[in-house]
Amino acid sequence: MPFKNDLILRAARGEQVERTPVWLMRQAGRVLPEYRAVRSKMGGFKELVETPEFACEVTIQPVDILNVDAAIIFSDILVIPEAMGLPYQMIETKGPWFEKTITNSDDIKQLKIATADDLHYVMDAIKLTKKGLNNRVPLIGFAGAPWTIFAYMIEGSGSKTFSKAKKFLYTQPLLSHQLLQKITDSTINYLKGQIRAGADMLQLFDSWAGVLSPKQYTEFALKYIAQICDSITEVPITVFAKDAHYVRKEMGALNCNSIGLDWTMDIKESRELIGNNKTLQGNMDPCLLYADFNTIRSETKKMLLQFGPQRHIANLGHGLYPDLEKDKVKCFVETIQEFRF
Ligand code: CP3
């Protein structure tokens, strides 16, 4: 059965669209009171991620409530380290925390290469969500990019500088490559599983791309992203490397359909660097959504004009913030959906 709305898939593949499609990073959770209601019934964030019925419910909420042009499966990038042997906890108001971290060669040897079966709860959530969506809009699957996952596995939590993880790259380059390869192999298994379960499109999140130098990013990050892009041939894939200004040209050479831009990246300059055969995704500053409705409308239209009518998927330059108002978020989405060039 065809999709009722497949704008995002067509935009990703570079086919003609009647209007620009829009979805929002972190649209599931964060701003919706309806999410909080489901969340409060559960023991915590992890239980929600691991219970397919509830993960499905909060994945579909933004499609019903915000009317976005795609759903993204409710999960987290940290399920991969856990499936490889490093369990995480999500500590209220603080964020992720790992009891065990990677410090030496033995730690890396002990890690398993994750398979899709190890993450059966995500596969089940995808299958249920596909049924629930009933082809209204496509479903996006995702994973963390290897460098960002590596950073959490070494640090054991978030960090301002990720200096422990960077120290590992400088002092243990061979071990770093071993670990990055294991993460990459696990991620490919995981993403292929998501495709088999029904994901229509994929996104890689490299949230901590910005802490590396261009040389390190090319050697320790881009190389593994390229392996993933080369192995995903079934569905469109987007690479979002936050703050990775310095490798936009190289990103243009990846075997992916779209590149996510954050709000600090100039749209015209990015298009010139990346070239014309990629769809660009982004890139409104999420803080614009604190402004009044008229400002949101006018700034959003300016953004659309800068990207132009084709090869653009509208989004924010990073995820929604938890204290944004739902009506302001809706205003952003509606402005995009009502706009015609
Ligand atoms: O986009 C979506 O709506 C789908 C769900 C999704 C979540 N996390 C749910 C979540 C996605 C795509 C992610 C990706 C993710 N997770 C990233 C990459 C994107 C980015 O923001 O850069 C990263 C770095 C993580 C790791 C992570 N998960 C952190 C640092 C935190 C705590 C702080 C925070 O951002 O809220 C999480 C928790 C998390 N993941 C929540 C949600 C809805 C909040 C948990 C809650 O209290 O309900």
Bound ligands: coproporphyrinogen III
CATH topology (level 3) name: TIM Barrel
Helix-strand category: alpha/beta
DSSP summary: helix tally: 15
CATH architecture: Alpha-Beta Barrel
Q: What summary fits the major beta sheet?
A: 7 strands, parallel
Which features does this protein show?
341 residues; alpha/beta; TIM Barrel; seven-stranded parallel β-sheet; two-stranded antiparallel sheet; 15 helices; 12% strand; binds coproporphyrinogen III
Quick recap:
By secondary structure, the protein is of the alpha/beta class. The protein has a single domain (7-338), classed as Alpha-Beta Barrel (TIM Barrel), CATH 3.20.20.210. The protein is 48% helix and 12% strand.
3D architecture notes:
- This protein has helices at residues 7-13, 33-40, 45-50, 52-65, 79-84, 105-110, 120-133, 146-155, 163-171, 173-197, 214-231, 248-251, 267-274, 293-307, 326-338, and strands at 71-72, 88-91, 95-98, 139-144, 201-206, 237-241, 258-260, 279-284, 312-316.
- Helix content is 48%, strand content 12%.
- The radius of gyration is 19 Å and the shape is globular.
- Helix 9 (163-171) packs across helix 10 (173-197).
- It has a single domain (7-338), classed as Alpha-Beta Barrel (TIM Barrel), CATH 3.20.20.
- Strands 1-4-5-6-7-8-9 form a 7-stranded parallel beta sheet, sandwiched between helices. The protein has a two-stranded antiparallel ribbon with strand order 2-3.
- The structure holds coproporphyrinogen III.
